[in-house]
Amino acid sequence: MSEEKSLNFLEEIIEEHIQEGRYKEIHTRFPPEPNGYLHIGHASSICLNFGLAKKYNGKCNLRFDDTNPVTEDTEYVESIKYDIKWLSDAIGKTWDHEFYASDYFDKLYEFAVTLIKKGLAYVDDSTADEIAATKGSTTEPGKNSPYRERSIEENLRLFEEMKDGKYGDGEKVLRAKIDMAHPNLLLRDPIMYRIKHAHHHRTGDKWCIYPMYDFAHGQSDSIEHITHSICTLEFIHHRPLYDWFIEKLEIFPSHQYEFARRNLTYTVMSKRKLLQLVNEKHVAGWDDPRMPTISGMRRRGYPAQAIVNFCDTIGIAKRENIVDIGVLEFHVREQLNKTANRVMAVLDPVKLVITNYPEGQTEELDVENNPEDPNSGTRKMPFSREVWIEREDFMEEPPRKFFRLGPGLMVRLKGAYIVKCDSFVKDKSGKVTEIHCTYIPESKSGHDTSGIHVKGTIHWVNMATAKTAEVRLYDRLFKVEDPSSEEGDFKDYINEHSLEVLPSVYIEPALATAEIGEQFQFLRKGYFCVDKDSTQDRLIFNRTVGLKDTWAKEAKKG
Ligand code: ATP
Ligand code: MG
């Protein structure tokens, strides 16, 4: 697929660098902060960084950006690694090294000392409020801190005391000495280190000072000899600071490049917001199948390859944009169409009796598993006098183009026979309870000599051998395309009807042995996969996606 595609702007940059001979090897990294689960936006970044390393025979590191001890956790580290492994199988490249920014705490401390010795960093006793108040604005220069002219010796001593735990949280910070009138506010003596007496998930209680993102990220890139440090657009104003630290420290010149965040319609994509959905129980967890997380999508049945194909075809942009979730669903369908076996399940059942089929007789029909996959073989499906069909496949008074069942109408039962509806039974409330048909014995699928042509084929499940299962139908988690840009709280736009549970649907007996995660096409109903909540006695299926975009159709009508 990529052969025909034109280069994206990062590939153009890299190819130029290769032609100039600027680097021996291209080296990228994916730098998640272990403070939440990965989402589809991260998948874009993973595909990009791992994909570039693969394309140019380079390397890609996985680096946990774990400089903020308070929000980080090993649970997140494990989930992130699991998700990346899952995606990288589909990308065809996994990480070359696993690193942690916290592994560099000693090195970063040394770097800070180097800058102090060069007169380029100082310890400031100002409070956070005082620092904010002297920052200035885009139209006003900031003011120098009264502590800015401390001697190098004093700064070295104070910084060491900060490290040794002599001061409380917020009592002092280490700042870079750049320019309090700099047009870019981020360069007005930015904070490099802050005091935080907090336990870190890897370094424990060794440190009570932690580097800020801007002081940790570029230096970590440089330590790892990252050639192309790719991040999202909001860091564009940080780039001069990224370059300043590297230049003053005279270390390997990593460079930062920015691309636009991946956004999707009908969802939110910030970890902070996703965490709220989890903590306030709007969803069942990070891997709830309605979540835009990788784990949610996997549980819902999205194949890794579909996510990778989606990211590859959308590519990357320089400007913020929002992609229709329908595009992702298209790739999910396209992938599952190739791989998922077709089976029959009746979600809203009504009984069909074949009055001329012998009572007590059952035959085993051979049904193909997947017409798209010649190697998928066939399976046996029991068929007898009473079967379940979908309630919506029958109408008492069918309109002209209704090619299903109604009085006098004929239809094929998939993989079985043609049946003709003779009559039906209703209960007191007027609900249809039974449909009576006769079947054409010569019309058996694959051996049809009846000469009868019918337009419709419907799915069914043999009553006597049917198993029951729970089905979970999912809809958009939000009622509006871009909940984050609406007025008020994004949670005001949650779709309360995003989950519909069908407690007891009928499935064919072959499905009884289906395993967690296994994917199927329920004929005419969509793609489904076995949920992890399933037990030995009770299978639960998630609807991954419908067969076609019913949503778009509904929306047009509405
Ligand atoms: P969030 O805003 O969801 O908390 P983040 O940027 O803080 O995201 P990180 O763990 O720091 O999350 O992200 C790891 C990498 O993934 C970064 O390089 C970041 O630029 C990239 N990334 C995060 N969100 C997106 C997105 N929506 N689209 C593309 N890349 C993203
Ligand atoms: Mg981040």
Describe the structure.
Helix content is 27%, strand content 24%. With 558 residues, it is an alpha/beta fold. Among the domains are: 119-213, Alpha-Beta Complex (Glutamyl-tRNA Synthetase, domain 3), CATH 3.90.800; 263-339 and 467-558, Glutamyl-trna Synthetase, Domain 2 (Glutamyl-tRNA Synthetase, domain 2), CATH 1.10.1160.10; 344-462, Ribosomal Protein L25, Chain P, CATH 2.40.240. The protein has a 7-stranded mixed beta sheet, with helices on one face. A 7-stranded mixed beta sheet has the order 21-18-19-20-14-17-22, with no helix packed on it. Helix 7 packs across helix 8. The longest helix is centred in the N-terminal third of the chain and has 18 residues, at 74-91. The radius of gyration is 31 Å and the shape is elongated. The mean pLDDT is 95. The structure holds adenosine-5'-triphosphate and magnesium ion. Residues 31-33, 41-42, 44-45, 65, 231-232, 261-262, 269-271 line the site of adenosine-5'-triphosphate.
Name the CATH superfamily classification of the domain at 263-339 and 467-558.
Glutamyl-trna Synthetase, Domain 2
β-sheet strand percentage = 15-25%
Cα-to-Cα separation, first versus last residue: 37 Å
Judged by helices, strands and strand pairing, the structural class is: alpha/beta
Average pLDDT across residues? 95
CATH architecture of the domain at 263-339 and 467-558: Orthogonal Bundle
Q: Which fold name corresponds to the CATH topology of the domain at 263-339 and 467-558? A: Glutamyl-tRNA Synthetase, domain 2
Q: What general outline do the C-alpha atoms trace?
A: elongated
Largest sheet: 7 strands, mixed
Radius of gyration: 31 Å
In terms of per-residue confidence, which ranges show pLDDT below 50 for 5 or more consecutive residues? none
Number of alpha- plus pi-helical segments:
13
* Strand adjacency order, main sheet: 12-25-26-27-23-24-13
Total E-strand runs: 27
* Hetero compounds: adenosine-5'-triphosphate, magnesium ion
